Amino acid sequence: MQKIDSEKSLKAAILELEEKHAYEESMLREQFKIAYESFKPINLIKSAFKEVVGSDDLKDELINSSIGLTVGFISKKLFEGVSSNPLKKILGTVLMFGIKSVVAKNPDIIKIVVNKLFNTIRHKFDNYNETENKDEAK
To answer: Is the pLDDT of residue 52 over 70?
Structure first.
């Protein structure tokens, strides 16, 4: 800041500092309002939800866990059948969580296996339809 040597320059400096103070005060109040709004519970929940939805890694992890749990549940039901044997039910539950864990940790391998299985089934279905169409043509 410059050296003040007259009453006129003192008044100008005071006016300048008052304007600066008013501007900084308004900016501080605005920042406080923004911070206050962001700490409201509904806004905290919204921002957390946006983070969860926006995370691709979390989406992939959720999908992989869901697939693993589904495959595990199906394998458990196939293993248990309609049995009411408690030991078989316990082993079925252990099998379910084991398969869920393996599938969730190796989703790429599972996707490849499922794709090959679907392609094989589709190929056999297409061959069956071609055979039927040839028989109908005769």
So the answer is: no
Per residue in 100-126, pLDDT (tens digit) is 777 777 777 777 877 788 888 888 877
Residues whose CB falls within 8 Å of the CB of residue 38, separated by 6 or more in sequence, listed in order: 44, 47
Residue carrying structure tokens 């962001």: 38
- How long, in residues, is the chain? 138
Q: How far apart (Å, rounded) are the C-alpha atoms in residues 6 and 44?
A: 54
Nearest to residue 125, comparing CAs of 114, 117, 113? 117
Tokens of 38: 């962001």
For the cut 90, the answer to whether the pLDDT of residue 17 exceeds it is yes
For residues 40-44, average pLDDT: 83
Report CA-CA distances (Å) from 122 to 115, 117, 119: 10, 9, 5
Classify residue 3 by its DSSP letter: P
Q: Rounded to a whole number, what is the distance in angstroms from the first to the last CA of the chain?
A: 104
